[in-house]
Specification:
This protein is of the alpha+beta class and 312 residues long. It has ten helices and ten strands.
């Protein structure tokens, strides 16, 4: 884990605050965090901090496997080899064996993703991996073995279109296992950059609080109203609560199914004329952003099936 940016969330749990303090020292493993926080890995839920963009996970990725294999070496191959060697030692196998096992696992996971997406596309509320009987047959189709008494196979009725830099390394075998055609369009390696820019819904609401025209009053300036309060904290609480409602409503109207609310709140003061402790209130700036993924709406007709390798 490593710290991406200071938290902009309105409130954090005590554990989340402690995690952030530890990661300010530099990147650390999950094991190290559990030792520092005196807890178990199963009790250390960091997903909310990841969703908020406060921290990020570091791990061996499919691209690291390609680097270790020598297929794709655009980045740091030495780091990839080191990570692979650590995981191979934990499994008690050689580096080469681990790489081959990892490649088969990654290809099969991509196949599972394709099959699951098509099941959902057909309107079936079925989770393939939740059914051992289904997975028994799928695994037979994806990883044939000499000791199997029978084999299975699948055939997709539409081609796969791959986008992302490493699709040429992964998707030919995926297409072969699913018995379908593979199309890799021109400039597929940069398609994810476009997707990253357009694949999230972000709706931001800004509210400004300033002293009112009468002494001891405060005016909330929001896009939907202006409202006076006689107490600053009451004005702030109102702005935060109402701002969250409007940001949530905007995200839902934009098509976001699951979203996080990120809150930035800053009170601005200037030094008074009497002494350093005398401060004059200027304004409060509140910004609330709803960030989420759009809900996938199935179209009535689709001719091709897209695989975004980065999101599988």
């Amino acid at each position: 884990m490593f710290l991406k940016q200071p938290s902009a969330a309105e409130t954090l749990t005590e554990t989340e605050e402690r995690v952030i303090e530890v990661l300010k020292e530099g990147p650390h493993s999950l094991y190290y965090l559990t030792q520092r926080l005196d807890t178990e890995a199963n009790f250390l839920d960091l997903q909310r901090l990841v969703n908020l963009g406060v921290i990020a996970r570091i791990s061996v990725t499919p691209t690291d496997i390609l680097h270790a294999k020598g297929i794709y070496t655009q980045w740091n191959r030495e780091a990839a080899l080191k990570g692979v060697e650590i995981l191979a030692q934990r499994m008690g196998v050689s580096r080469d064996v681990f790489i081959e096992l990892a490649i088969e696992k990654i290809v099969n996971e991509l196949c599972y993703t394709c099959l699951q997406s098509l099941v959902s596309y057909e309107g079936q509320d079925i989770r393939l991996k939740d059914d051992p009987a289904v997975m028994y047959l799928i695994d037979k189709a994806l990883s044939a073995a000499d000791d199997y008494k029978f084999d299975c196979s699948y055939k997709l009725k539409m081609p796969i279109i791959g986008i992302g830099a490493p699709v040429s390394a992964w998707l030919p075998e995926v297409a072969a296992k699913l018995n379908t055609d593979l199309v890799i369009p021109d400039h597929a390696e940069v398609a994810n950059a476009v997707g990253a820019a357009t694949g999230k819904i972000m709706e931001t609401v800004k509210v400004l609080i300033k002293p009112g025209e009468k002494d001891g009053t405060y005016l909330v300036h929001a896009p939907w109203e202006r409202k006076y309060f006689e107490d600053l904290q009451e004005a702030i609480d109102y702005a935060l609560e109402d701002g969250k409602k409007h940001a949530s409503l905007a995200a839902q109207k934009a098509g976001a199914k699951d979203f996080e609310l990120v809150v930035n709140h800053e009170d601005v003061y200037v030094k008074g004329t009497l002494d350093d402790e005398d401060k004059v209130y200027i304004e409060s700036r509140i910004e609330i952003t709803a960030v989420g993924r759009p809900e996938w709406h199935r179209e009535e007709k689709k001719e091709k099936f897209f695989v975004d390798l980065a999101n599988c």
